[in-house]
Amino acid sequence: MLPISLNIVSKIKIGTKTFYSKNGYHISLLCLEEFSESDQKKVLNFAQKYPVKLKKISKIYRLVTQENQQSIIVRVHLYELKRLIFAFNKHFGYNFTYPPTHITLFTLKDQYGIAVNSTEEYRRLTRQIIQKDCQRLAKSFKLIRFAI
User: Fold this and answer.
1) Which of 17, 24, 95, 99 has its CA 20 to 30 A from that of 11?
2) What gap in Å lies between CA 92 and CA 90, rounded to an integer?
3) Which neighbouring-strand residues pair with 63?
4) Which domain holds residue 66?
5) Sign of the torsion formed by the C-alpha atoms of 24, 25, 26 and 32
């Protein structure tokens, strides 16, 4: 996870729905939820050798829908994530692939972001947001800083 700080509006109307900003923001790098706690620690310690940095926040906004949950994401580009994934796979024998890197900006009231950890999930769970709403979204937040 790559923590970031945003200056963001508290809510925004997209289509017919009102979405609300989250309490904290990050970019998920690798999905480790199925790993044991000890294996997660090994991976996180190993990752310290391969710092990943935010390169660019794109202008690609997507609506993510899973059952009754919805959220809005923006795609991001990162430096060095491919190198980190290659090193993980080589060192641990894993088969990680490059994820659809993004920041979840908004969710419906009292909801959480929806995990989008693979290209297959990205294709299945997301859809394009119309241009005028994308322009409003682009003006709704500003990057303050990101941590390494």
Assistant:
1) 99
2) 6
3) 72, 127
4) 2-146
5) positive
